[in-house]
Amino acid sequence: MARKPPTNRWPTARQSFLAATSQFRGVPTVGPAPLIAPVHLDFGTASQTGRTLAFISSLRKRVLEKQERVAIDLSGCEYIGPIGMLLLAAEVERCNAIRPGNIWGSEPEDELAAFGLAAMGFHKAIGIDPPRELDIDSGFVQIVAGTADTEDVARKLAPVADLALETWGDQRFANRVHGALNEALTNVIMHAYDPAFPKAAPASDGRWWIAGYADEGQATFLALDHGVGIPVSAPLKNRGVQSYLSEFSSYTDEQVIFSVVADEGRSRTGLQNHGKGIPAMIALVKDLAESGMVWIVSGQGAYLLIKEAAKPPLPARIYGIPVKYAYPLAGTLIVWKVGRPIVGEQSEKPHDA
Amino acid sequence: MMRDLSVSRDFSEFPFGRYPEHGPFNGQRFRDEFIKPALEQDEPVTVDLTGARGLAPSFLEECFGGLIRAGFSENRLRQLLTIRSDNDPSYIDEIWDYVHDAALATAH
């Protein structure tokens, strides 16, 4: 007999996802149309990244444009990474804010994938109780969301500093990490959600999300916004980027992102209205950390800057890779991996990188 | 008489942002309500960053580079202003760079 869809008992804005878990498993035969998540829900290979972006894009289109009720089926997920969780949590929140009560979900059957969701605070981020209680008191910054104008942003980022201090035991380095993330969120407020730009999407005003985790002496932080994106904002607001792009008759999203990264080396960006978040992250990896990575994804482009640790007698190596994606990311995602602080290194001026 | 200001004690342990639209503990506010009135007394002022968490470039630039835009000369600031940062002295050079850059920008 066909199972009836669960009754919607979560009328507030951030509610319905996974609340129906106890009422159905897997894909319901009646009720919300199923949306099956990829087996690997995260960035990774080109095809894994493409499937993840397509899945998130499909959720948004079906709920907001086609006005469907959607059941997200995570039961077949074998891996859900931090990026996948963050993108999904943010998209569910956005959809629920605009059309409450139209998303349902099922937990992954894979134990590790289910553990990862709970550990990263996915359920809490979308406003529901986690299906399991985990005894996790270190190693994670669970998904934190906020807006600029009504909340104490820096205080909300304190867990980032705590994770950094816990990982490296270096107060000065932890403060620099915290400061760079603060700067990135300042940029989100100043540039991604600049009122001069058309709204990137409804109900996304000023909203940002962060998360983080530590592993083997490295900490990785993720920052996401649903703003207009770097390929839109940077050519309009950043003079260094404008100068670089003026050499081309047309340019791609990844070229714009690259020009933002390159601009860090060309100018002293403490100046007003000149984004300093990404440069601060890059400078910290270049100057103060043994190794690291800054991965900036926006629109259909990305730029990956990697610092490989020195392997004496070989020095540390820094290189960048532009990437083009088949599906766009609505907003900007920054994945920032920071290795151990360089021992004995004096802090250098970030803009001197 | 020397005036001592502490970001964490007098303002916030978690300063954030450049302008008021970025939140209550922004750089413009700390500059206009704390540093600038103290400097206008024409007495030496020490600003202590020790204890403030997550100091970001745009907060610092607006606090100190912004003093140039508020009418102070770089020379005058170097005479009156002392920056203290026990946990991370590298902030001190960074701040003076912001002041210098703002002075250059204003001169042009």
How confident overall, as mean pLDDT of chain A?
A: 80
CATH superfamily of the largest domain in chain A: Histidine kinase-like ATPase, C-terminal domain
Major beta sheet, strand line-up of chain B: 1-2-3
Principal-axis shape of chain B: globular
**Strand segment count of chain A:** 10
Order of helices and strands of chain A: EEHEEHEHHEHHHEEHHHHEE
- Whole-number average pLDDT of chain B? 93
Report the major sheet of chain A.
Answer: 5 strands, antiparallel
Distance between the termini of chain B: 35 Å
Strand content of chain B: 5-15%
Query: What's the level 1 CATH class of the largest domain in chain A?
Result: Alpha Beta
- Rg of chain A (CA only): 20 Å
Describe the protein in words:
The complex is a heterodimer of chains A (353) and B (108). Chain A is of the alpha/beta class. Chain A is 36% helix and 22% strand. Chain A is built from eleven helices and ten strands. In chain A, a hairpin with an 8-residue loop joins strand 9 and strand 10. With 108 residues, chain B is mainly alpha-helical. In chain B, strands 1-2-3 form a three-stranded parallel sheet. Chain B is globular. At the A-B interface, helix 5, helix 6 and helix 7 of A face helix 3 and helix 5 of B.
Please name the defining characteristics of this protein.
heterodimer; A: about 350 residues; alpha/beta; Heat Shock Protein 90; 2 domains; 5-stranded antiparallel β-sheet; 11 helices; 10 strands; disordered C terminus; B: about 110 residues; mainly alpha; 5 helices; globular
In short, what is this structure?
With 353 residues, chain A is of the alpha/beta class. Chain A has two domains: 1-127, Transcription Regulator spoIIAA; 140-353, 2-Layer Sandwich (Heat Shock Protein 90), CATH 3.30.565. Chain A has helices at residues 46-65, 82-98, 111-119, 122-125, 153-156, 158-168, 171-192, 230-237, 239-245, 253-266, 277-288, and strands at 33-36, 40-41, 70-73, 79-80, 103-106, 140-146, 208-215, 218-225, 292-308, 317-338.
